Amino acid sequence: MSRTWKIAIIIIANIALDQISKVIVRSKIDYREVIELIGEKFILTNVENTGAFLGMGSDMNPTLKLIFLLILPVVVLGMVLYYILKNKHLDRLSLVAFCCIIGGGIANVYDRIMYGSVTDFLHIDLGGVFRTGIFNVADMSVTFGMIILVYASLTQQKNVKKINTISESED
């Protein structure tokens, strides 16, 4: 299977998982209904986010929303996709990370285009230890991709330092 097909499959899988989960939430959970999965620690709810991450930008005027929540993300996602398709030397971990970021980004942009908002439905509250806003599968995909990208970058830096140390000691 070609590299391009693998990229397409990972991106499409991310979009599909997100969109399927949102279809289920929209059809099975009433707006603002709260379903406790693990007490108040992990809940499902159905909210529509007209802004970006954690609702930021939801009070922007329509022109700014169009620019910052639709046009700019589409341009950035297009640039990242172009980058991973052209950069044949990208390590596998970074490639998967970028694909997750692109897939999650496309899924949320799709919602904004089709519905005017993004459906969010997951909330974790572990008290003072860890608390999230309400998020969705696309947000998890983007976050996972970012974490993996940072890990891959740190791993590569560590390997480069090892190689440099070894080559310096041989001199």
Describe the structure.
The structure is a single chain. This protein has 171 residues and is mainly alpha-helical. It has one domain. Helices cover 64% and strands 12% of the residues. It is built from 4 helices and 3 strands. It has helices at residues 3-28, 62-86, 92-115, 137-170; strands spanning 34-38, 42-49, 118-124. It has a 3-stranded antiparallel β-sheet. The N and C termini lie far apart (43 Å). 21% of the residues are buried.
How helical, in percent, are the residues?
55-70%
**Domain count:** 1
Output the number of helix runs. Answer: 4
How are the strands of the largest sheet arranged?
Answer: 1-2-3
Regions with little confidence, pLDDT below 50 for 5+ residues: none
The average pLDDT is: 92
Largest sheet: 3 strands, antiparallel
Termini, distance in Å? 43 Å
Give me the strand/helix succession. Answer: HEEHHEH
Q: How many strands in all?
A: 3
Share of β-strand residues: 5-15%
Give me the Rg, rounded. 19 Å
**Structural class by helix and strand composition:** mainly alpha
Q: Overall 3D geometry?
A: globular
